[in-house]
């Protein structure tokens, strides 16, 4: 099932801290769009005016907060928020029978298991990498309900999830949890640094420059080694240099956390896992594909545990691993993971999704390399 909606793109993607800070500022514009009857199209509603806390707390705006969907790009990174009235009728379950993915601004509702006649369609409102405390807080704060005793599946899943997610030294993972806030704050400032401008669909650096030779990165190396003032660079190179520096800061912070906790926190600890993800993303955007693969491989088993069955987030993660292996010439391993990603994503995304089309091309490329070798 596909639905159009009213949506607004954030100036950049992937920063949940930024989205949490900005979501309420867009509610007035979205409300106006609803009142004008624009529910059949997806419109850019422009820059928001400042709104007061009293305005935010009005029941109509609370309804928008409660019923909006976070729009994700192909890599499941948050890039905006949208209103999809019919889909807002779906109830939450910690063991849902459906999932939601986006193809551009279009919301797709996909069944992820067999659904019996008369069975209610449900989705999970939450990030699966949340502890029970974090889940209860978000359900209470954003959706205004609590998980009750009657919700046996939810309670069982929450308790089991905590035992798996919060493994390792408690003092250490709390320190990592705090460090993640610093990483999010760094990422929240990237909208003004991106050489591609404030577009959440901007191509990662490794795609702009080419994953093999990365000529632009290499061209900037002398400036970074000599520590020349940024005034020696033109405006475009200056923006690019700043963005690269931000990614390097994130990677350095992630590496420090991972290296210091390698023997004290397992990769299945949810906060350690999030740091591994950040390190992988930083390496990809810096063109360090071999290092990115080493971090990505460490996420595979935790993702299998925390995203059971057919889950779009796991499908995308496995696809990333397969693509990295393909770039490194590890063709049999890449084929195995790309096929696994296809098996998951043909359920969660459907064969008509643009990401599936990309995945098929990768499978064909991998198969050709295997035959040639």
Summarize the entry for a quick read.
By secondary structure, this protein is mainly alpha-helical. The protein is built from 15 helices and eight strands.
Q: Mean pLDDT, nearest integer?
A: 74
* Proportion of helical residues: 40-55%
Give the strand order of the largest sheet, numbering strands 1, 2, ... along the chain.
1-7-6
- N-to-C span: 42 Å
The number of E-state strands comes to 8
Question: Number of helical runs?
Answer: 15
Rg is 21 Å
Oligomer: single chain
Describe the largest sheet. Answer: 3 strands, antiparallel
The shape, in one word, is globular
Task: Give, in order, the helices and strands.
Answer: EEHHHHEEEEEEHHHHHHHHHHH
Poorly predicted parts:
8-21, 37-60, 191-235
Strand content: 5-15%
Structural class: mainly alpha
Write structural notes for this entry.
- The radius of gyration is 21 Å and the shape is globular.
- 54% of the residues lie in helices and 9% in strands.
- A hairpin with a 5-residue loop joins strand 3 (68-72) and strand 4.
- The chain starts with a strand and ends with a helix.
- It has a three-stranded antiparallel sheet, with no helix packed on it. A three-stranded antiparallel sheet has the order 2-4-3.
- With 373 residues, the chain is mainly α.
How is the topology of this model organized?
Blueprint: E1 2-3, E2 6-9, H1 16-22, H2 27-35, H3 53-56, H4 59-67, E3 68-72, E4 78-83, E5 91-92, E6 98-103, E7 106-111, E8 122-123, H5 132-143, H6 152-165, H7 170-187, H8 205-209, H9 215-226, H10 235-260, H11 270-285, H12 289-306, H13 312-327, H14 331-348, H15 354-372
Parallel strand pairs: 5-8
Antiparallel strand pairs: 1-7, 2-4, 3-4, 6-7
Helix pairs in contact: 2-4, 7-10, 7-11, 10-11, 11-12, 12-13, 13-14, 14-15
Pfam families: SET
InterPro entries: H3K4_H4K5_MeTrfase (IPR050869), SET_dom (IPR001214), SET_dom_sf (IPR046341), TPR-like_helical_dom_sf (IPR011990)
Organism: Apodemus speciosus (Large Japanese field mouse)
